[in-house]
Structure formats: structure tokens, C-alpha cells
Amino acid sequence: MASGRRSGALPSTAATVDTTPRCRPGRRRFRLAVHPPPWDRIARPMTERVVIPIAEHRYDAALPHVPESPQSPVGRLLDARGRRLHDLRISVTDRCNFRCTYCMPKSVFDKDYAFLPQSSLLSFEEIERLVRAFVAHGVEKVRLTGGEPLLRRNVERLVEMLAAIRCASGEPLDLTLTTNGSLLARKARALRDAGLRRLTVSLDALDDATFRAMNDVDFPVADVLDGIEAAAAAGFASVKVNMVVKRGVNDGQIVPMAAHFRGTGHIVRFIEFMDVGASNGWAMDDVLPSREVIERIHVAFPLEQAEPNYTGEVAERWRYRDSGGEVGVISSVTQPFCGDCSRARLSTEGRLYTCLFAGAGHDLRGLVRGDTDDARLAGAIAHLWSQRTDRYSEIRSSRTEGLRKIEMSYIGG
Ligand code: SAM
Ligand code: SF4
Ligand code: SF4
Predict the structure, then answer these.
(1) Which of 137, 157, 289, 385 is the most exposed place for a label (fewest CB within 10 A)?
(2) Cβ(34)–Cβ(47) under 8 Å?
(3) Is 148 in the pocket of ligand 2 (CB under 6 A)?
(4) Which homologous superfamily is 48-411 in?
(5) Closest-lying ligand 1 atom to the alpha carbon of residue 181
(6) pLDDT at 389 over 80
(7) pLDDT tens track for 315-366
(8) Rounded CA gap, 280 and 9, in Å?
(9) pLDDT tops 60 at residue 1
(10) Conformational region of residue 293, where left means phi above 0, alpha means psi within -120 to 50, and beta covers everything else
């Protein structure tokens, strides 16, 4: 098998963690299941962790600094580590009809959970204006996500508005959307007609019982597969299929998923379970390293590594030696890729986050709803990005364990 682009040895430093319970009155608690970790890098003795109230994060956003005399955007913006601003991910709703155990566990996202009110959400016009400001700085790729983006009413109208935007090169944006697929059979044609060119569907198992348990709302796998078929029929020739792998939960589905989508033109991407947010009970021993994913598939269907499509591509590509297509692995835990990270994230209510693992954002909505003109809006974005130093996945360790982090469903995956 070819060696991986990021296939260095697995990390094994010797930090021991002080996991003093961080209990505060009035906060929700959940028990963290603990087994002996595979690596001692993030060892966790039996303890109780506290979920930070998620709504609290929403108030943790300062208004960005707005330069008095902003420079005009030149179509290329670098952060403090020399990384370009190239991708923008936009969460169009914090709501979801699934309760995936690794993302929106029912114990936290229950009937009492306070989702954002409609008035807090960025309107489509506000999103469009912000996207134009980002495009002026060189953003060429936009992903709509959530929560479940297809729950946002008339999301295809937003797609249509964003599809009309041109990059500095004159080309349309590389516009894509990530969905759990539950509403896709109904929506695929409208999304395609609105100008969406690429699509990612999340699917964690082919086995119906495993899938129902992971989405935790008893949603059948057949309906998601119907959605993928509908998407293909509507013209999405190569759908990306995201599978979050949790050791001992759905890792038995790796080879069946690879087998099912081999030869279809669709590309399965196996994602390491990440410690996003504070509610999913993440533990290192739940992570199956991508290297093992590739080894398992390779035994069944020999693989060889493929070149990345572009610098900064998140997924590492592997193709079947017999021309059956390709798979990808996203290894943010075992092989971090912060060095190339060119992604900014816009939350449902218009906070800008410069890292998936950030604890606080900046309130761009406050500027958009105020009297800030386009030049000063672009200046504020430039100021924020140019100060960016994030590299959470590279420094994930005992030192980062207790950090406050925003939830994935709010910030967008
Ligand atoms: N609801 C849509 C979906 O599931 O496709 C879009 C939003 S979801 C937050 C975006 C992606 O993040 C999905 O592919 C999901 O599987 C992934 N994701 C969520 N929580 C994750 C975690 N803890 N680790 C790794 N990936 C995660
Ligand atoms: Fe919903 Fe997507 Fe999170 Fe699952 S991963 S709970 S489908 S937002
Ligand atoms: Fe980018 Fe943050 Fe992920 Fe690193 S940890 S790749 S900086 S989002």
C-alpha cells in the first residue's frame, strides 16, 4: 500500500491529565464512559464532565473591530500563519431532525433545549451580503450546512442567490451543501435547478439497526439511500458520503459501506470521531484512526493513495486499484491538517468562527444589521482573519481538554 501523505506515526506523548470535575451549580451533567485509552496522550481517569450550556456560547461574541480606513480587498487574505481565506461554511439552521449521538445527543438537545428564534437567524439577504464580502477576500468555496440545512425553509432560494455570485476569476462559487439526506428525495431536484453543483450526504451505516441507533430518532437507512438515488437522478453524479466512524459502534460498517458505493461514482469519506463541542462525550478510545480504516478496506479491495485535488484538501484520497472509484479519510484527530486550514465558519446567527474548535466568535450580524457599509464590513473580516492563529487539532492534548468549544450543530460541520 502506498504510504499516506500525512501518514506519520500515531502520536504518543506522555502527558497525564488532571481531570478534576468541572462542576458548577445549575449545569447539566452527563457521565463519561471511560475505557483504557489506546494512547496516553489524552488519558482520562473515571470522572464526571459537565456540559457547558450551549446557549451561553451565543452571547460570547464580541463585535469585530472595524478599521476606520479599511484597505480595499485584493482577493487574497492571509492569516497570521500565512493561510489563505478560501472556504466559508455557513450554518443555516441550528435545528435538526436527527439526534446523532456524536453531534446532538438527546440528553442535551431535548425538548427543553432552546434553539435560536427565527429573528436571530441571518436572513438570506444578509447571508448573501456577507458571502460577497468574503468573496472579495478570495473565498471561492461555500458550503451550506447546519444543523440540517434542508430544514431551513426555501433553502433552494438561498442556493439560487449564492449561485449567482461570481469570484474574482469570473467563475461561479464552488457551492456545496451537507445534509443528513432525510429530505433529499423531496429536495434534490429543486436544489439542482437552483444551481447547486455538489452535495455531501452523511450516512453512518448501511445496517438499518446501527443507523437508526446512531441517528437516535429511528430514521431508516432506506430513506437516505433513496435520497442519494434521487440526487444522482437530478444530476449530482458524484455524491460525497460522509461516515463518522466510532470504534465499537459502527466500525463494522466500514467495509460494507465501501463495498456498497464502489463503482457508483459516489465517494465515501470516513471521518474520525472528533471532540467538537462539549456534549458528545468524546473519548480518545472511541476514535478509530483513519490508518486502520484504510487497512481494513485494503484487505477487501486493494487501494493506492491518490494525489490531493488541491492544496488544503481535508480528505486524504485513496483509489481502488481495480478502477472501482475512490474513498477518502478525514483524520483531524490522528493526522491534523491545521497547517493548510483555509476555512472560516459563519454560525446560524452570524458569528464568525475561525476554527471548528473555537470557543468564541465575532458578531458579523451586528455589523450587517448596523450601519456598516461594505468596505468597512470587508475591513472587519480582514482584521479578524489576519489575526488568526488557530491550530487546535495540532495541539489537542491535556492542555486543550477543558477548553470551551462551540457545538457542531450551531457552527456547522
Ligand atoms: N446535518 C447535516 C449532516 O449531518 O450532514 C449537516 C451538519 S453536520 C454537523 C456536518 C457533518 O459533521 C456531518 O457529516 C456529520 O457527520 C459531521 N459530524 C458531526 N459531529 C461530528 C463529530 N463529533 N465528529 C466528526 N464528524 C462529525
Ligand atoms: Fe443533525 Fe447532522 Fe448533527 Fe446528525 S450530524 S445530529 S444530522 S446536524
Ligand atoms: Fe482548521 Fe481548527 Fe480544524 Fe485546525 S482544528 S484544521 S485550524 S478548523
Answers:
(1) 157
(2) yes
(3) yes
(4) Aldolase class I (3.20.20.70)
(5) 5
(6) yes
(7) 999 999 999 999 999 999 999 889 999 999 999 999 999 999 888 899 999 9
(8) 27
(9) no
(10) alpha
Task: Return the residue whose CA atom lies nearest to atom 4 of ligand 2.
Answer: 100
Q: Is 409 in the pocket of ligand 2 (CB under 6 A)?
A: yes
Rg of the chain taking only CA atoms, in angstroms = 21
Cα 389 to ligand 3 centre (Å): 10
Atom 2 in ligand 3: residue holding the nearest Cα: 355
Identity of the amino acid at 86: H
pTM equals 0.87
Residue 407 DSSP SS3: coil
The atom of ligand 2 lying closest to the CA of 97 is: 1
CA of 103 relative to ligand 1 center, distance in Å? 7
The H or E element containing residue 242 is strand 240-245
DSSP conformation class of 311: T
Instruction: For residue 182, give the ligand 2 atom closest to its CA.
Output: 7
Q: Identify each DSSP E strand in 35-83 by its residue range.
A: 48-50, 61-62
| Residues in CB range of 396: below 8 A, 6 or more apart | 42, 275, 333, 336
Taking the C-alpha atoms of residue 185 and residue 189, their distance in angstroms, rounded to an integer, is 8
Ligand 3 touching residue 391 (CB < 6 A): yes
| Residue pair 89/346 in contact by the 8 Å Cβ criterion | yes
pLDDT digits (tens, 9 = 90+) for 10-24: 233 222 222 222 222
Ligand 1, CB within 6 Å, residue ranges: 96, 102-103, 145-146, 148, 178-180, 202, 242, 244, 271, 273-274, 276, 280, 408-409, 413
Rounded Cα gap, residues 378 and 368, in angstroms:
11
Residue with cell 479519510: 329
Give the cell for residue 260: 456498497
